[in-house]
Design brief:
Layout lengths: L13 E2 L5 E8 L6 E8 L5 E7 L13 H4 L29 H5 L8 E7 L14 E7 L6 E10 L11
Antiparallel strand pairs: 1-7, 2-3, 3-5, 4-6, 6-7
The protein binds 2-acetamido-2-deoxy-beta-D-glucopyranose (2 copies).
Length: 168
């Protein structure tokens, strides 16, 4: 039987404070095939750092939609030990947490605009380790210091289609 190519698209909207704009799209040409991650971010203003898929979806109506209390840590279903990860952008995709996009493909540090297309065989859109429905955060740093800026976190909701996503 010939298997039809299936395209899985995720629609992403920004939540939380800050001026970062743009989107991250995930698609798969075939089920179980590698995921293509299309990143198009702007207004990063040199304060962004890493970006990650987190464990939980957005909590509707939350006063702190960007907090780790709401969305928990990086999505890491294979319990990868991050102290064994190489520097960002250096290793192979299996050497980082599944949700560690900037580890796999490089940080946003000192960028205002970032456009990139990445192939990731370890970012499933189906099955038990699927990232669909979770959130993405872009971490930012306070200017002139290296304090992680929770208020600057921006969140994206990952959905299998664009309906049913509400800005709040
Ligand atoms: C993670 O790896 C480090 C360095 O190899 C090790 O010291 C630590 O015990 C590991 N942590 C877990 C939870 O396995
Ligand atoms: C879009 O997603 C929502 C929620 O997951 C689902 O209820 C709805 O049926 C989907 N619509 C289409 C056209 O796939």
């Amino acid at each position: 039987m010939v298997q039809k190519a299936v395209r899985w698209m995720s629609c992403l909207l920004w939540f939380g404070p800050g001026s970062i704009d743009g989107q991250v799209q995930f698609s798969q040409a075939v089920p179980q095939g590698p995921t293509t991650i299309q990143v198009s971010l702007k207004n990063l203003a040199s304060i962004a750092g890493g970006y990650h898929v987190h464990v939980l979806p957005l909590k509707p109506g939350s006063a702190s939609p960007c907090s780790n209390a709401d969305i928990l840590g990086h999505f890491n279903p294979l319990a990868w030990n991050v102290s064994n990860s190489p520097s960002p952008g250096v290793g192979t995709v299996d050497q980082y947490e599944v949700g560690d996009i900037s580890g796999k493909f490089g940080m946003l540090t000192l960028k205002d605009i970032y456009e990139g297309v990445h192939e990731d065989p370890s970012m499933p859109l189906t099955g038990p380790y699927s990232i669909v429905g979770r959130t993405i955060s872009v971490g930012c740093k306070v200017l002139h210091s290296y304090i992680q800026c929770v208020k600057g976190l921006k969140k994206l909701e990952i959905s299998d289609n664009c309906s049913g996503i509400h800005l709040y």
